[in-house]
Amino acid sequence: MTTSDLPAPGRRSAVPECLEDVCITCSDTAVAVTVIALLDDDMAVVDTGSGSEEVSVALISAAAGDTILVHAKEAIAVVPQ
Q1: In terms of pTM, does the model score above 0.90?
Q2: Right CATH number for 25-81 from 1.10.10.10, 2.115.10.20, 2.30.30.140, 1.10.10.60?
Q3: CA angle centred on 30, ends 61 and 33, rounded to 5°
Q4: DSSP letters along 62-78, please?
């Protein structure tokens, strides 16, 4: 992206654009993990393949055994089986 690709000063682009292979907002991707257990306060313990972590499941409806996509410790989708 060059400065000529940016909107004029004081004006925002009407639609955000991702011009590369990664998101321009965070430059990262979601990771598939398996839910081991649901905890209180919309949290879950997940298996990352190299250990376990606690992540938020506040944005999705997940159950133990589900594969979910997690980005920045926030579950963003349940992977259909």
Answers
A1: no
A2: 2.30.30.140
A3: 60
A4: --TT-EEEEETTEEEEE
Structure token pair of residue 61: 């409806």
Distance CA 9, CA 73 (A): 34
Question: How confident is the model over 32-68, as pLDDT tens digits?
Answer: 999 999 999 999 999 999 999 999 999 999 999 999 9
Residue 5 phi, psi dihedral angles, 5° rounding: -80, -10
C-alpha–C-alpha distance, residues 48 and 68, integer Å: 10
Q: Which residue has the tokens 């639609």?
A: 15
pLDDT of residue 1: 46
Residue spans per domain, the chain? 25-81
Length of the chain: 81
pLDDT-based confidence at 20, cuts 50/70/90? low
